[in-house]
């Protein structure tokens, strides 16, 4: 996670944060009227962007996604849940670029985020889903913890609301943008110093699997605990009754969220140059 903080010393990366945040907010705001859960979330075609921004701009895309979502919240859904929305949208872009490198989804000799092969297209779909779920987990857990919205309903809606645009719209966007971003030397791996760029290795692979398991088990376990608490999925979850703020849901999803954060730190970085 070193690059998440060291990038603030690179002018280009800071500019990319601002551009990503502005673009994301600009696409979120017009759809604030298409409400899915009042005061919480809405129809989000803009969800096509965070995965693309993460793969192209790395940590700048992650910060831009988080900040852009917060800006968008000022236009219709700002509240205590926006804190969890900030964290969730950070991971929406962060998880894809980390797992693209560290999970072994693409060949080690060709990790460029240009989906020109079947393997890279499959890898894109996988990291898009994991990024979407990595966004849903802390948000749904946080609002369950606060007793505001049932985990089962909110978590499932966010996963679908993020994954579909990220795959259907994001893949062609990435295909079109990558050659231009590469030509303009704006890929984050071209801007950051060599020692700030993640490399493969045993700890990186372990961290990537730990991150994946934390997301999947946190969501699946959270849904199971939510079901036992009488909650339902998607919109049926709002009419199913059940306990909101269930200790079982909070504990299981909370462990998954903690694992997601911890896995970000154990994915190793190459040693600093002396």
Low-pLDDT stretches:
269-274
Biggest beta sheet attributes = 2 strands, antiparallel
Biggest sheet, spatial arrangement of strands:
1-2
Helix content: 55-70%
Integer tally of domains: 1
Through-space gap between termini:
20 Å
SS field, number of helical segments:
12
The average pLDDT value, as a whole number, equals 88
Query: What sort of overall outline do the alpha carbons produce when their principal axes are compared?
Result: globular
Do you know the CATH topology? Arp2/3 complex 21 kDa subunit ARPC3
Q: Helices and strands, in N-to-C order?
A: HHEEHHHHHHHHHH
* SSE-based structural type: mainly alpha
Strand runs, count: 2
**Rg calculated over all Cα atoms:** 18 Å
Strand content: under 5%
Top CATH class: Mainly Alpha
The CATH architecture category equals: Orthogonal Bundle
Short structural description:
The protein is an all-alpha fold and 274 residues long. It has one domain (2-266): Orthogonal Bundle (Arp2/3 complex 21 kDa subunit ARPC3), CATH 1.10.1760.20.
List keywords for this structure.
274 residues; mainly alpha; Arp2/3 complex 21 kDa subunit ARPC3; globular
Textual characterization of the structure:
The chain is mostly helical and 274 residues long. The protein has one domain (2-266): Orthogonal Bundle (Arp2/3 complex 21 kDa subunit ARPC3). It contains 12 helices and 2 strands; from the N terminus they run ααββαααααααααα. The protein has helices at 2-6, 11-28, 49-57, 59-73, 81-102, 118-145, 151-168, 170-183, 188-191, 202-228, 236-239, 247-266; strands spanning 35-37, 41-42. Strands 1-2 form a two-stranded antiparallel ribbon. A hairpin with a 3-residue loop joins strand 1 (35-37) and strand 2 (41-42). The longest helix has 28 residues, at 118-145. The protein starts with a helix and ends in an 8-residue tail after the last helix. The relative contact order is 0.14.
